[in-house]
Structure to design on (263 residues):
């Protein structure tokens, strides 16, 4: 049941990243995907009574914090430049 | 009995808040829905007996990441096209891709699932045994992650420096 919940959370996060337009909402949906993965890791760690899953969850926490710490300044810079939160306005960033 | 009920309740709350994240319009409400999801997941972790992770979930995710996010939303209260039209033109292909993803994962994972062992393994996940095992077995990962954090701090400072130079 918890694995089904984690798959659903990951899918909803993926859907949010694809479907929404707002940059900040997309970032939050990425966090939701990480949370879904965390839930599955914790469930597996608890079912197999091994601490490796819990350690991996701890590492994911750090990675999520680092991701947010870099993503938010980049979004701030972009919005200071264009004053738009809509990701479609940044198609000129294509290489 | 009551633990199973609470587990269902927390998991259901997490799912409902995650669905709300997709349909709500204002980013601040989306942030509050995500906070509700994270808090419910912390409740699930606590019910599973993994108390360390539950505490870290509240401290790091809700306490640090989401507060940072809320600050960013307050700084950037921009009402533009993304406010009036929530969904991009990828709405239909996105829903189709998500359904396909769920089907593939459900098909692949369901048969490979291990039998649930039942009974929370609470003794293993207390703070003391967890930290001892962490630093005895996984010290290299711990150090690598601290290097990653330093790199993230330097990168954030570099991004700010670029912005300052850009504005003159």
């Amino acid at each position: 049941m918890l694995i089904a919940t984690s798959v659903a959370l990951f899918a909803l996060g993926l859907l949010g990243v694809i479907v929404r337009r707002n940059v900040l909402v997309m970032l939050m949906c990425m966090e939701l995907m990480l949370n879904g993965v965390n839930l599955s890791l914790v469930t597996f760690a608890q079912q197999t009574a091994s601490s490796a899953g819990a350690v991996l969850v701890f590492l994911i926490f750090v990675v999520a914090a680092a991701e947010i710490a870099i993503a938010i300044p980049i979004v701030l810079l972009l919005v200071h430049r264009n004053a738009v939160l809509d990701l479609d306005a940044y198609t000129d960033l294509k290489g | 009995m009551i633990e199973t009920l609470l587990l269902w309740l927390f998991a259901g709350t997490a799912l409902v808040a995650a669905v709300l994240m997709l349909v709500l319009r204002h980013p601040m409400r989306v942030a509050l829905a995500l906070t509700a999801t994270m808090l419910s997941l912390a409740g699930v972790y606590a019910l599973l007996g993994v108390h360390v992770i539950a505490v870290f979930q509240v401290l790091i995710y809700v306490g640090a990441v989401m507060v940072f996010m809320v600050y960013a939303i307050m700084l950037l209260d921009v009402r533009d096209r993304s406010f009036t039209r929530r969904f991009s033109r990828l709405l239909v292909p996105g829903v189709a891709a998500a359904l396909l993803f769920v089907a593939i994962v459900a098909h692949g994972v369901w048969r490979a699932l291990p039998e649930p062992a039942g009974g929370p393994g609470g003794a293993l996940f207390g703070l003391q045994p967890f930290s001892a095992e962490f630093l005895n077995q996984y010290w290299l990962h711990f150090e690598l992650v601290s290097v990653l954090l330093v790199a993230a701090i330097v990168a954030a400072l570099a991004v700010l420096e670029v912005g300052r130079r850009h504005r003159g």
About this structure: Chain A has one domain: 2-93. The CA atoms of residues 52 and 79 of chain A lie 40 Å apart. Chain A touches chain B through 69 residues (CB under 8 Å). Chain A is about 80% helix and 0% strand.
